Amino acid sequence: MVSLQSYYKVVKSFGPFGEHAVNASWVAVQELKKLGLGGEVDLHVSEVPVEYQTVQSLVPSLWKKYHPLLVVHVGVSGMATTVTLEKCGRNHGYKGLDNSSFCPDSQCCIVGGPDCINSVIDMESVCKRVTASGLGVAVSVSKDAGRYLCDFTYYTSLYLSHGRSAFVHVPPLGKPYSGEDLGRALQAIIQEMLELLDQAEEKIHCQQHFH
């Protein structure tokens, strides 16, 4: 097993926007912070304003500061009824104005970057494992994070981390889950993600050893 003690785990969540005066994603992340991820994982959380330019500066600074094993971004979706694991981030199609009434002129995250970047995490596997654990919170997988700040942040993070990022969309509070439910779901999901990463690192190490 690869020790996680020397690594950081960063969880980012978004602040209020639009009709979401209380952002369920930030409430869920606060609950996760209370629960923790076990003694071997150094968990850092931060709240992100719903602004393209802030994301463009903040995401690289987090990677530079913490050198995390994994960054998990959490956002709220008014359309979601399940906790949704996003498989990939998209580079183009950002036309919606942010909280500062700003939108990138290029309407893309990284000029010249690939159209789509997948997470190294197998989201289908995470979904199956968490569902089988009897958590009591429905989990699903999506290929479209919505072409707004969530998607923009996810793509930017995936690009910088070579895929070592994840994005989780949560439904608004009470529709149907409480903040505590969402916190428990995040804990279970992230623990599975770290386990999968650990297994992948171990496999790579073994392959290098035998060559």
Task: Tell me about this structure.
Helices cover 39% and strands 19% of the residues. The model is unreliable at 1-9 (pLDDT under 50). It has a single domain (8-210), classed as Aminopeptidase. It starts with 7 loop residues before the first strand and ends with a helix. The longest helix has 32 residues, at 179-210. Helix 1 (24-35) links the parallel strand 1 and strand 2 (42-48). The protein is globular. Strands 2-1-3-8-4-7 form a 6-stranded mixed β-sheet, sandwiched between helices. A two-stranded antiparallel ribbon has the order 5-6. It has 211 residues and is α/β, with parallel strands linked by helices.
What layout of secondary structure does this protein have?
Layout: E1 8-14, H1 24-35, E2 42-48, H2 52-66, E3 70-76, E4 83-86, E5 88-90, E6 116-118, H3 123-132, E7 139-142, H4 149-161, E8 165-170, H5 179-210
Parallel strand pairs: 1-2, 1-3, 3-8, 4-7
Antiparallel strand pairs: 4-8, 5-6
Helix pairs in contact: 1-5, 2-4, 3-5
EC number: 3.4.19.3
Subcellular location: Cytoplasm
Enzyme class: hydrolase
